[in-house]
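Please check this record.
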Amino acid sequence: MKTAAALLLLALPLTAMAEPPPVTHGQKAPAAEPMKRFQWRDEAAGYTFVAPPRWAGKVKAVPLASAELAKSGATSGVKFVAGTKTLLVLLASDDERAKAVTDAGNRELSRHDGHIVAVHAATDSGDLALTDDELAQAVQWDGQQAGTAVR
């Protein structure tokens, strides 16, 4: 009897190892998907633009040329394009040039520590268009809590 009990105890771990652990059912874990997020960083002005996930993989950031910056009065800028369509243009400047940027037809979006960010949005961006709330939360200044809009 002792021998039979000992054999049973020895046989249990062998049978447990033969079966896959519960929950896995012998299937491999799904491949990790990259985080779907769109962001663009302006080092000079000290902010990061974070767009909604629907922009990920569809929108590209194209820095503005010197001529475009000179025309707008901004110190740095970027346009966000989907294919051949420009969705919006972000312009950054210091407080001294802020009036020139807004006088050029751009709307002030955010202001922080002597810098401003202005926006010029296309009117026909379709499903990639950003709402006013999304725009307000998209600009994240260095040293500020994420999602804090500074005006």
Summary: The first strand starts at residue 38 and ends at 42. The chain has four helices and eight strands. Confidence is low (pLDDT under 50) at residues 146-151. Strands lie at 38-42, 47-51, 60-63, 76-82, 85-94, 107-112, 115-121, 139-141.
